[in-house]
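Support reply, case 0932

Customer input (verbatim):
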Amino acid sequence: MSGIKGKTALITGSTSGIGLGIAQSLADSGVNIIMNGFGDAEEIERNRSDLEGRGVKVIYNGADMTKPDEISAMLSQAQDEFGGVDILINNAGIQFVSPVDEFPDEKWNAIIAINLSAAFHTMKHAIPQMKKNGWGRVINICSAHGLVASPYKSAYVAAKHGIMGLTKSAALEVAQQNITVNAVCPGYVHTPLVDGQIDDTANSRGISREEVINDVILAAQWTKKFVDVKSVAGIVKFLCSDDAENITGAPITVDGGWTAA
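Our regenerated output:
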């Protein structure tokens, strides 16, 4: 795709799910990849090798996104290996389902740290080099929950609403420096994170997995089907292109009509 071949993308939470799908899509367009996330070491290496087999350079950094020092070190490695990050995809996220009055403090703190604060720290370190290069793309993988709420997800909804505010504010700051900052807001994508939500919601509400999928999750999506990872990756790739240079500060929904209702 025009404008991105040879550039470098850091994708947090890219060892599985949406993040890995984005990494595959960008690698196919000639973008070097910095993988990040947790998981089985052999599987991570297989995925890294597969990405590199698409003709780009790929490295893995296992920075813990709750730790600002590790995030800073990861961006320093990006500077050393690639001369900085051209495309930053903040995708790492976790979830926990509980009534607000029973929500564990440690779960709240972890969700805010990974789903919101981590994006601030990566942007803080990546944007200065983007300014020097005169080009950059920041794409925060938000959620329909960045626009609307659901019960029992107070920390996640708070973090995703925060991501929307961070996206808009940063977009205005760098709007005249050929850097765009946008948020992609998927509905439910059948990833390991969502699979965990299905179990948690079933336990929280005392219903079956099938009832959660049909009556809780897909009830919000008018298409009545999960969003495909490739759909999210395709939107991300478009936002990286020259054609999207005037799209900034925007929530791009890929939610099966959820937020239209």
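We compared this against your earlier run and they match. Two observations from our side: The first strand starts at residue 8 and ends at 11. The chain has a mean pLDDT of 96. Please reopen the case if you see a mismatch on your end.
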